[in-house]
Each structure stands twice: as C-alpha cells, then as structure tokens.
Amino acid sequence: MTGFVHAALGAAIGRAVKNPALAFVLGFGSHIVGDVVPHLDMDIGETPLVFGTLAQIYRVHGWKSGQFWGALGAVCPDFEHIPAELRRDPTRFEPMPSKKVPTHNGQLPHGRWPFEDKWGVMLNFTLFIVGLYLAGTLDRTREEVVAAIE
Prior knowledge:
Layout (H helix, E strand, L loop, with lengths): L2 H15 L2 H17 L10 H15 L4 H10 L6 H6 L14 H4 L11 H19 L6 H8 L1
Helix pairs in contact: 1-2, 1-3, 1-4, 1-7, 2-4, 3-4, 3-8
C-alpha cells in the first residue's frame, strides 16, 4: 500500500481508539496488514503526498490526536526504505534481510497488484479518501480546525 493510504487508514484507526499511544501501535500494525493485501506500490516520488497527508491530518486534528499518531505509526515502517532509495539500490523493491518489517524482509508476503495499474491507482485513491473521511479529516469546519491546533 502506498504511504499516503497507510497514513489515511492509520488516522481512521486513531479516531476509533482515541488514545495516541495505542493509535501509533495499531497504525504501525495496520501497515503490515496493508502491505499483505494486494496493492499497487509507488516509488519515492509519492513522498510529498505522504508528508502532505500527515501535515493535513496534523492541521485538522492537532498533534495530540489519535488521528495524527495513528497516521504517523502507519507510515513509520516505510522509513526503513529511505537508505536503499537514496542509494538507488537496484534491489530496493525486493525483500531485504536487513529490514525489520516482516513485509519488507520477506517473512510475510508483500501483496502485488495483479491487474492493470490504472485500477491500482483508483483503489489507492479510493482508500485514501475513505480513510480520511473515516478519520473525520474531510468533514471538519474551519472553527474546529482552528480549535484543534490552538
């Protein structure tokens, strides 16, 4: 699953559990579940979308919210990809024993999208919007947003 989808679904989990620490742990766990499900991965070019999603969740819910910590927990496992991406390692899209996340090191299967890429992109953006909606990120008034960050 792409990082911005992980973030949106982690935020939805955070809204449900409310406790920031528990939201972070469950968000981290949701990353592994999301990686097992067949999906279309994107490359490092999605990084601005990941950080933009985190910034919007922070802006709407504040840094003390379950939504923010669930989202952060859900994207943290992908941080271990950064060194291989920076080196442009030709094996960076394959399981690497040096990685700790089970879906990144081959201990658990990392789902691959079996259909045309356009359907994978549509699924990613559908899950993204649904996750943000369930997190309450899309239905906040301006006043609620200002109150959350004050």
